[in-house]
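Entry 12.
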Amino acid sequence: MNSPSRASSLGHSPRTVGLVAAVVTVIVWTTFIVVGRATADPARGGSLAPFDIVFCRIVGASLILLPWGWWLVQRDRAQGRGQSSLFGVSPLSLRVTASIGLFGGLLYAMLAYNGFVFAPAAHASVLMPGSLPLWTALLAALLLHDRITWLRALGLGLIVLGDLWVGGPSLLHALDGGEVWKGDLLFMASAFVWATYSVLARRQRLDAVRATIAITAFAFAIYVPAYLALLLSHAYQGHLFNAPLRELLFHTLFQGWGSVVISGIAFTKMVEHFGPVRSTMITSLVPGLSALAAVLLLGEPLGWNLGAGLACVTLGILFGVRAAAPVKAKAAAPGPVTAGS
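Predicted 3D structure (tokens):
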């Protein structure tokens, strides 16, 4: 478990670590949305289906995190402490591993990548990181007994308004025909399960590295055998065996190492410092940034609403962070104390 004193001993203040983690998370999440749409959309000529990409994501992350988890477990056992599960590769108990792994490691990826098949990046920008503050605030109030003050409610309202300005006009036509609405529902569901993971990680006061290892170990143990069994039995018509090697390597590196290892640790570290609600306030920068990137890189339409949306989101983040700042003085629970709400 990382603590403020440990962060300082490494030469970096907890605030610096939290800010760096926030920047890394925003960059990777923005790239994830653009790359996800560019590769999962059948119209853009990607070779892999969504469940194939999920497989590459999990296997790529596992190449780093499972050996890391085994080493942590062995070290803990030598010191006569710690818990483990899943044959010694998860450094957390089976109950905790399964609870956070289901939401953060398994469901999120399956829902998000399938959403990109049906809906454009602008929809993903609004309905994934854009709806995270709402889901997280509600779950934090329910599970962490976090109080939603009027100032935080104002911040949440501004973020929602900004997200609607960015992608709302296209969402109004989601039910006119076609299958865009399927992607919208999948994006909203993926935001909900990621918010659940972030609140559970905060509730358990989980170390960023151990939590990321645990969710990857759970996803590997459940998804990889099931995927391979369906693929080899021809019950699922995947494209793993006929896709170009460079595409497989790209998804293994970006989706596995970038989106899981780097982003997963950075996000959980950000939650440790800022708390789940303020963390999702910060990630509300992603809708505007990813929508702008989709315009520049994917040729999606540019509207006047983008500037208005970014302004509202920025104001909402400022209100949310300001509202959460006094909560530091209240942290008096047993175990390592973490800043934030």
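Annotation: The chain has one domain: 4-327. Residues 1-10, 326-341 have pLDDT under 50 and may be disordered.
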